[in-house]
Amino acid sequence: MGRDVHTDAGSVWEVLADGWAYPLWVVGATHMRDVDDDWPSVGSRLHHSVGMWPFQLSDNTEVLAVEPGRRLELLARAWPVGSARVRLTIEPRGPEGCHVRMWEAAADPPWRWVPDWAQAPGLLPRNTESLSRLADVAEHRHRPC
Predict the structure, then answer these.
(1) What is the pTM assigned to this prediction?
(2) Helix count (H) and strand count (E) of the chain?
(3) Digit-coded pLDDT (tens) for 60-94
(4) Do 9 and 69 form a contact (C-beta atoms < 8 A)?
(5) CA dist 47 to 14, 30, 50, 70, Å?
(6) Closest CA to 67 of 132, 17, 29
(7) Is the CB of residue 49 less than 8 Å from the CB of residue 30?
């Protein structure tokens, strides 16, 4: 799934590269506890909570692959629910626009044995909202007063 964003690719990347901004755009992430100093390099982690208080789970998200400014692949954990592989790609579309794609699939059994096409409908509402939030943050983050 994807979304056109009405700002440059660099502004979108700036949000992704700011680990402290994670709960601003990721549906379900509610509290940041720490961000590794080298985020978003491969192996670095965000330490966050998911869920609503007082039923929050503390876990982390790890960078699996990165192409700065273009692609970020994550392993998002939420024990005991499981983990998911998430890939975000940014495609520039001129000086004031880009297209962001988001792919997600379960990483743990038994859900990882379910084909991506069968997982997609259940993930669509959450990922649509996450992309909408990401676009809002990127488009309005540094708007002058």
Answers:
(1) 0.91
(2) 3, 7
(3) 999 999 999 999 999 998 767 789 999 999 999 98
(4) yes
(5) 19, 11, 10, 23
(6) 17
(7) yes
